[in-house]
Amino acid sequence: HLHSAHRHSFYHLVFFTEGFGYQQIDFKKFEVKEGLIYFMIPGQVHSWEFEKEPEGYIINFSSDYLSNFLLKPDYLNGFSFFSGQPDQQVLQLSDPVQQVIVNGFEDILKEAKSETPINDDLVKTLLLRIFIEIARDQNASLTNNKHSYNHTLLQNFKNLIETNFATLRLPKQYANLLYITPNHLNALCKDVLGVSAGTLIRDRVILEAKRLLINLDLLVAEIADKLNFEDQSYFVKFFKKHEGVTPEKFRKLNTSNHGSRKND
């Protein structure tokens, strides 16, 4: 019942109808129980340990599966459970919505088992309905603050971090790309998120280091190079300062010794 940490290269969601145990998403621990659904986006790391055999539904789909279907390639970003923030990705659903999404999952399965050729557009539409019903249940409106200037600016900053965290480490570099001052960017982050712009950048670098460390095929020196640290020694000091353990110690705590753990 123990599944070692592994990294997903696709969107992934699981709805549990039975079972109990624990799971980790990007190294944050959550309970597994009936009526719970969790979401993951490409690149995140996941592990779980079940104390009671689970039952439920799993759906995996590629990054372009829905973007090719919709006119808005960033449509999924409107759902908080696709934010990449683990605390927003694990949800306990109300009983009425559980029944609605079970019906949705069953309709998808029915289409897959049909003797007629599968209608992929129907499957995509059913999947989108599941997302919208869950968002409504969580009061996570697609349009809530979606078009405010500060929300847009903050989302653009996060997108830039996601693309450039390995090469751009200073808030002023991102402020230049956003055409605002570093003070404005920092004030925005503190007002909305309660942390500095520098902390967001640093945390993303550390998260990527953790994700890479579970791949036993990579040497610590190679990870330091991938993240553009001057040398392994500087990377080790940086990691230990913020995590309290060395990269090697973190790796031992979060992997088994059964060889490499490649992406799914």
Task: Give a short synopsis of this structure.
The chain is an alpha+beta fold. Helices cover 46% and strands 19% of the residues. Helix 2 packs antiparallel against helix 3, helix 4 (149-164) packs across helix 5 and helix 5 (171-178) crosses helix 6 (182-193).
Keywords for this entry:
single chain, 264 residues, alpha+beta, Jelly Rolls, Arc Repressor Mutant, subunit A, 2 domains, six-stranded antiparallel sheet, 10 helices, 6 strands, disordered C terminus
Structure description:
- Mean pLDDT is 89; it is low at 140-145 and 257-264.
- The chain is of the alpha+beta class.
- The protein has helices at residues 86-89, 95-113, 120-137, 149-164, 171-178, 182-193, 197-213, 220-226, 232-243, 247-254; strands at residues 2-7, 11-25, 28-32, 36-40, 45-61, 90-92.
- Strand 2 (11-25) and strand 3 form a beta hairpin.
- It has 2 domains: 2-137, Regulatory protein AraC (Jelly Rolls); 149-254, Arc Repressor Mutant, subunit A (Orthogonal Bundle), CATH 1.10.10.
- The chain is built from 10 helices and 6 strands.
- It starts with a strand and ends in a 10-residue tail after the last helix.
- The radius of gyration is 20 Å and the shape is globular.
